[in-house]
Amino acid sequence: MDCQGRGEELPGEEAASRGREGSSVSYTHDSSPDSDDAFSEEETTHTKDPKHKRGLLRKTKSWKTFFNVMHWTFRRSNSWVQLAGHEGHFRPGVEGVILKRDVGEESECLQELMGDVLRPFVPTYHGLVEMEGLQYIQMDDLLAGWTGPCIMDCKMGLRTYVESELCAKGQRATLRGDLYQKMVRVDPGGPSEEERRLGGVTKARYMQWRETLSSSASLAFRIEGITMNNGTVMKDFKKTKTREQITATLSRFTEGNIDVLRGYLGRLQSIEEALLSSKFFRTHEVIGSSLLFIHERTGCANVWMIDFGKTQALPAGQTLAHDRPWVEGNREDGYLLGLANLRQLLVDTLDQQCRPLATTTPTTRPGVAPTTTTPTTRPGVAPTTANDTDN
């Protein structure tokens, strides 16, 4: 099923309130360059009018982890909603294109990816443009053309910080009370006795601790947030880490749609095959990058690699395997480990939907415990159950 270039109507009340045919909602995501803010307790809308702020928050239910409403821009031919982490990082472009502030290494990465085997799996890069003295990346709006999509963002890798952040001047020794307070709010038992006595933690310690809360450290990926086509937002996944928790979340996200699950698995297999032959992937430390999952209830599904602002090229001659544990100094990001775990959990979710009933529905009589019989099979003979034989 071809899922690219799909149109998207504004869901529910928003579509009706706009009263325009062909309206679309664009989803844009930005990873904060300051990873300290990932577990902020604040939800900001960057608006001076408190009533307007509350209204926007109710409408969008912004993702606490990093998605905050910035502003809404409505056009005659395109309704554009921006959910991102920093005011001014995104602007609407021409139809089907969004503008993203050129921060970090993203523009260089996207430009290089246009000549790599990964090109079909990343937003098409249309160059840089200057507006009001700032440089913006022009790239495809991945939601252009979809109708009522469900969206999930998965942050890939064992860590979301680059090694240089650990080695930055003063980060090893400087104790920060603000990060200590964040740690205590999320996990009162997180600080060590020494950290409690000093009332502070280093940025390096905080960043490493933070990854252990979610599935990043154990499964090399984590779910950042989900929006459903009816406007429901699932946003608090910072402590979602077990396979059972993630499988339950994937089941809810896909609503058990077998076509969607199979579509995602096929796309991830194609991405993995491209990664294994990609020169870009071999020669870059991929940090803070996400896989963006998009599907409709029709069964149409797609996955895109996004967010390359923290991705860093390796020195000439060096390569990464991406499937090894990280030890400080080896720069391994664990991307392939996360991809393998994510694929397996999607397989598990699919198996749950496809699994045939292994037992009959228990029957009960007063004073007798329910009994079930596991079906038995013989070559050429259909399985039998207690209900088949108890006549």
How would you describe this protein?
This protein has 391 residues and is α+β, with helices and mostly antiparallel strands. Helices cover 31% and strands 21% of the residues. The chain contains 13 helices and 17 strands. The chain has helices at residues 12-18, 50-60, 106-113, 163-167, 177-186, 193-198, 203-213, 216-219, 243-254, 258-276, 279-282, 335-354, 386-389, and strands at residues 68-74, 79-84, 90-92, 97-101, 125-131, 134-140, 150-156, 221-227, 233-234, 284-285, 290-295, 301-306, 312-313, 363-365, 368-371, 376-378, 381-384. The strands form 6 sheets. It has a 5-stranded antiparallel β-sheet with strand order 9-8-7-11-12. Strand 8 (221-227) and strand 9 form a beta hairpin. Helix 9 (243-254) packs across helix 12 and helix 10 (258-276) runs antiparallel to helix 12. The protein is globular and about 55 Å long.
State the gist of this model.
The protein has 391 residues and is an alpha+beta fold. The protein has helices spanning 12-18, 50-60, 106-113, 163-167, 177-186, 193-198, 203-213, 216-219, 243-254, 258-276, 279-282, 335-354, 386-389, and strands at 68-74, 79-84, 90-92, 97-101, 125-131, 134-140, 150-156, 221-227, 233-234, 284-285, 290-295, 301-306, 312-313, 363-365, 368-371, 376-378, 381-384.
